[in-house]
Design a protein that fits this description.
The structure is a homodimer of 341-residue chains. With 341 residues, the first copy, chain A, is α+β, with helices and mostly antiparallel strands. Chain A is 28% helix and 28% strand. Among the domains of chain A are: 122 residues, 3-Layer(aba) Sandwich (MutS, DNA mismatch repair protein, domain I); 85 residues, tRNA intron endonuclease, N-terminal domain (MutS, DNA mismatch repair protein, domain I). In chain A, helix 2 crosses helix 4 and helix 6 packs across helix 8. The first copy, chain A, is elongated and about 85 Å long. Chains A, B: Keywords: Lyase, tRNA processing.
């Protein structure tokens, strides 16, 4: 069977319509005929269902750059997995913005009303702006043409931790932390602020509690902790090493605390924070649920780094969340996770 | 027992010398007396072995900034693990450059001639220049004052793969890859170049082989592959998305191939390449040994990212190697791995 290319789409007659659209969900109808997007035509050429498009065979059609090769690879992979799908063209699907392909639930097709995934196709080699994520599945094609699917979402980050630290705590600011001497034991045991200098501190009193600079800055700002030089001294100490990053992390730390979530360092997982949604006491701590990485909201992700974060968070059974901080103080939350369609 | 601080060191008399140096490896002798580095004095104050230094107790001594708090935490941790160790001061130890602490093998001390680890202390929050790594153990103190040890090394990267691809292969350059039609099957099956478009290609002929742009650029440069536009067309295509990074990756790809090591994409592990040291045939492929991340040689590592790479590579039983590319074409190899002292 042969088809023709005009104005960026491939056209074929009634037999093609029956065979491709009615039976297998390719293209859109145009009266008695069928209109195919280039990626669909490429797939039909690859399978041998179409013999040529304007005298081009599969090789010539791909080489003609009519169809991006990445789109073809993802389209083929999703077809191989048993899905019907459509290119996200204006007038072909609802809400095409930000997506390249719209995938229907298994057993459904373009004539139904349901969508399983909105897919954006991206090369391992390119970067993806954080703005473009949150309501699409990222199909990352690696250099060897293998495809990894990353689902992205805008999660609600909140918890039920409810602890009000007492005022009147004092501490010494050192190079990189604040030491509290004979602090209220609750500050650690219920609030999960700091880390005892020795021993596990889960019972009885605590001799010396070490606070991170972020924890200290938060507690000074909230009138709990007094330190020589006040909030400015802690901020200055934090910014000395980290610059603006310290302020971004502090902002996210405060936002998490205000949502009832306890952030602790995520260093061991390569993140800024790991978080606990419901701390009643440190002695009965549950598994931490989220890994949080703090980034400026104009950040562009290298798919390689995104894959690394997602892979590691999956390996430790936590959800990977990015806190994207804007210049105006706004924080938006972005989640990424592995998807097997 | 009391001691005095002068010119950056802490001094005490004969009894201290016997108790601290002779019995437990603190400080250096100075005639009948002992000279202690501030971090050693801080540890003795913390333990209550020293009562004061110039009337300062442990709290006052730490707050006086005589001793960096990070150094104290690492010193204490290594003592807790049963090691004797010395600050890496000029005249105290051989080869102090780049290290903060020198750790003796268990059961040995400063009066012996052996060194187990040279340790550099760094905050989770600071960055570490690649230049400073390769012959030290990095002790990273996280915000909660927990310590992770990362060993760094300058590995010999080499393998025994020995395959000469035939000349006269042709291909089509697409957006992001090169397609070879009816290529010599050996190119994939023995050389492990590319990835078949469909099927596993491990037996018999291959209809279509997909090469990454890096593979294609390498094969064009070596006179194996002919493509319209030649090497420049491939380079241009690679640089379009990646800029200089493409050239760095290509240089490392070529260096690995020339050392008998086969690089394939490391995307799934968040790296640039995974490598196989000894490929005889793809059908009998062994486990890949290294994950390679390509970085400019002036790169400064965030300990968080380093920990992430090391953790993931350990999880998949591969060694993490950084290929540091210099402006002059030189590549130096840096390995990082988790260490439990």
């Amino acid at each position: 069977m042969h088809a023709t290319l005009s104005e960026g789409v491939v056209r074929a007659g009634r037999q093609a319509r029956e065979q491709f659209y009615d039976a297998r969900g390719y293209g859109r109808t145009d009266g008695e005929d069928i209109v195919l997007a280039p990626v669909e035509a490429a797939h039909l050429l690859f399978r041998g269902d179409l013999d040529s498009v304007d005298d081009m065979d599969f090789r010539a059609f791909l080489a003609s750059a009519t169809c991006p090769d990445l789109h073809f690879l993802v389209y083929k992979d999703l077809r191989d997995r048993g899905f019907y799908l459509s290119p996200a063209r204006e007038d072909w699907v609802d809400d095409p913005a930000g997506a390249d392909l719209v995938v229907y639930p298994r057993g459904k097709g373009p004539w139904d009303d349901e969508v399983a995934y909105r897919v954006r196709v991206v090369s391992e080699r390119a970067t993806v702006s954080a703005d473009d994520l949150g309501d699409v599945v990222l199909a990352v094609v690696d250099e060897e043409s293998e495809i990894t699917y990353l689902d992205t979402d805008r999660p609600d980050v909140s918890g039920t931790t409810n602890y009000e630290p007492p005022a009147g705590v004092t501490g010494d600011l050192l190079d990189d932390r604040v030491l509290l001497w004979d602090p209220p034991a609750d500050l650690f045991q219920h609030g999960f602020y700091g880390q005892p200098l020795s021993g596990d501190g889960e019972e009885g009193s605590i001799d010396t509690l070490q606070l991170s600079l972020v924890e200290a800055a938060y507690l000074v700002r909230h009138g709990v902790l007094d330190i020589d030089g006040g909030e400015q001294a802690v901020l200055q100490c934090g910014r000395e090493v980290e610059g603006d990053r310290f302020d971004r992390r502090l902002r996210v730390y405060a936002a998490l605390r205000e949502r009832g979530v306890v952030p602790k360092t995520g260093y061991k997982f390569g993140a800024d924070f790991r978080t606990y949604a419901d701390v009643e006491s440190v002695a009965n701590l549950t598994h931490s649920e989220l890994l949080v990485r703090v980034l400026p909201d104009e950040h562009a992700f290298a798919p390689r780094d995104l894959a690394l974060d997602v892979r590691l968070s999956g390996g430790v059974r936590k959800r990977m969340v990015f806190a994207l901080t804007g210049g105006d103080g706004h924080i938006s939350w972005l989640e990424a996770g592995r998807l097997t369609p």
